[in-house]
Amino acid sequence: MSLDNIYFKNREVAAFKLLDVLPLESMKLEKWIVVACSYGGYEIAKIIANALNSDYEILFNEKIYAPNNEECEIAVVTELEEVLIHEELVKAFDIELDLVYLKSKDVFETTIKPKINKFRAGEKLTYLKGKNVLIVDEDINVGLVMMACIKTIINQGVKSISVATPLLSTASIQAIDAITDDLYYIKKLDHYIEADFYYDSLEKLSFEDIERIKKEG
Known about the structure:
The chain has helices at 11-21, 24-27, 39-52, 87-92, 97-120, 144-154, 170-179, 207-216, and strands at residues 32-36, 55-58, 61-66, 69-78, 83-85, 132-136, 160-169, 182-189. By secondary structure, the chain is of the alpha/beta class. The chain is globular and about 50 Å long. It holds the Pfam family Pribosyltran. It comes from Arcobacter porcinus.
């Protein structure tokens, strides 16, 4: 790995650099909730929420992969059972939509629901109506997860919705910009590889890790 490609030492450093591009003073004039859409994003969300004196949460979601191809993401299902499908890939692989929805339901029941039960005693993230929401992640590549989270949160009738990330692919900007109030980022990349290529240290976080982060306050 070339050192020229490393932009952040770790998530903590990325989070504090992200604070530099956020309009913190104007944001502090209103009440916000910071929502992560990944475990790595949750670590960043905590730091940003503390700077805003706001609450922070995570919107659980899981990727759905193409049959016989565990590296090809064709859809994302969130904890409110919203499903966002990558239509071009589904058509390209000739995958039946019913199969995608069936798989999404199974993933929700077997993977997402148990996490909600353990993390929030079964309470889904359904209290965002009328709130200013800042969605945070450690990076945005394809953008399927982020778009699924945006869709899920918008459908709750929020007051405003913004996105903040240290890194994102240039290709994802237009779609996100079109449906959010603001998009904040540090580095955009035309030829995006993967997040850990741009961090010196990007430890993979587990469900137990975010439980620990939550308990630490």
